[in-house]
Amino acid sequence: MCLAMPVRVLAVEGDLATIEIAGGTRIASKKLVPEIKAGDYGLLHAGIIIQKVDPEQARQTLALYEEIYGQSASR
Amino acid sequence: MRRIRSLRRRLPGDDPVPIMEVCGTHSHVLGKTGLRELLGDAVEYRSGPGCPVCVTDPTDLDMLVRFALQEKVLVAAYGDLLRVPGTEGSLLEQKARGARVSLVYSALDVLELARQNEKQQVVFAATGFETTAPGTALLILEAKAAGLKNLSVLSLHKLMPPALRQLLSAGRGRIEGLILPGHVSAVTGRRAFDFLASELGCRAVVAGFEPLDVLHATALLLEMAAAGRCAVANAYRRVVSEEGNTAAKEAMAEVFAPEAALWRGLGEIEDSGLGIKPGYAAFDARRRFGLEPGRAPGGGRETCRCGEVLRGAIRPPECPLFGTKCTPAHPQGVCMVSTEGACASYF
Ligand code: SF4
User: Fold this and answer.
1) For burial by CB atoms within 10 Å, which of B168, B180, B241, B316 has the most?
2) Mean pLDDT for each consecutive 10-residue tract of chain B (347 residues)?
3) Which structural domains are found in chain B, ordered by start?
4) How far apart are CA B144 and CA B152, in angstroms?
5) Does the beta-carbon distance from A46 to B53 stay under 8 Å?
């Protein structure tokens, strides 16, 4: 039950954010990530965004995996 | 995987290296992808206590189940909790018998539920680790701001660091490294787990939930072991920072104070639960309804040896309850509740 998923924020208003999820949209609380804005990615858990996803770090992780594991990464 | 095998060969001995994946979601990833078996010759993954509903103690569930049968009461809970058995059945079974139980997706849904059921006392059975507790804190803060009189919270929240401390410092057993829960760490921050290396001498890696994340974390642990290095590394920087989420931690600290909590199969662990602070007593279901779990002294529960199984001090069949009093249908300990649990997968 601790699974959270990355979602894209489409719009924010007050403590709420409209997010894109599974092809649809939904309203989530952004109270715990006051700095998040439209276009950012967040980690959604039980209707609440609990952390911002750092796109730069995400890119670096992918690059690292690619470098270490290369083609075998998907095997 | 080749990399993991070659790293394994750099370590002494022939046995698979014991690594504990603390989080139930990691267990799920390992099971679903078949990695647990594929890598079985190199690594022995042990599922840790990391499923917050599985660790809910049967006595707490019994209390909840009995409470839900009362009149003018509506119990709200996350779906996962409904199936977890107490000694008197699960919430789901009681629901079939007429108990009023409502499933919520988010803690904040409980606000609406309370508004729509003004004549009922709505009690939120709040389960989960640090990922979920901030949501409950927000719920309580908003309920107070809105002056809701029919909403309260039964906090069954559990905290991860104290449980790991207790598990690792109690007695014999060997774990070469821990894979730490990524989403708990998103809230607590990596630093909250530093004590594992600095005080308990156990290396650990915070990991994400893609299969590659788990493989990478495993490789990092073996690398550290081969180099004789002991640290708490972060392989999930895209969401886990050193500090975690300050706003979430502040909301939790405003509403909750750590208190002792009972874990299924592990017993009472100091400061591993979250009690509601006196300033929010009006929203504390324990205080409002005098809810006390009937902590049955003695009984089978006492002899569950989950702690030892998790540490690797014993194998599941060495537990006297295994397969007799403790089966997946009637689990005594957390290792039997989840299908990925050590005792359940042995069964
Ligand atoms: S078999 Fe059951 S009682 Fe024994 S250690 Fe495992 S979970 Fe606990």
Assistant:
1) B180
2) 86 88 87 89 87 83 86 90 79 86 94 95 95 97 96 96 89 83 95 96 93 93 94 94 96 97 87 96 93 56 75 83 88 78 80
3) 1-300 (3.40.50.11740), 306-346 (no CATH)
4) 10
5) no
Domains present along chain A, CATH in parentheses: 5-69 (2.30.30.140)
For residue A61, how many C-alpha atoms fall within 13 Å in the half-sphere facing its CB?
22
Taking only the tens place, the pLDDT of each residue in B263-293 is 887 888 999 999 999 999 999 999 999 887 6
Which ipTM did the prediction report? 0.84
Chain A residue with the nearest C-alpha to that of B129: A2
Report yes or no: B158 and B52 within 8 Å, Cβ to Cβ.
Answer: yes
Q: What is the pLDDT of residues B114-148, one digit of tens each?
A: 999 999 999 999 999 999 999 999 999 999 999 99
Predicted TM-score (pTM) of the model is 0.89
Whether chain B has a CB inside 8 Å of the CB on A16: the answer is no
How big is the CA angle at B302 (ends B301 and B307), to the nearest 5 degrees? 95
Helices B211-227/B24-33 angle, 10° precision: 100
A vs B: CB pairs below 8 A: 112
**A37 CB within 8 Å of a chain B CB:** no
Distance between CA atoms of residues B334 and B344, nearest Å:
9
* Helix ranges restricted to H, B118-255: 133-146, 160-169, 182-188, 194-198, 211-227, 246-255
* Residues on chain B touching A49 (C-beta within 8 angstroms): none
Distance B319 CA to ligand 1 centre (A): 6
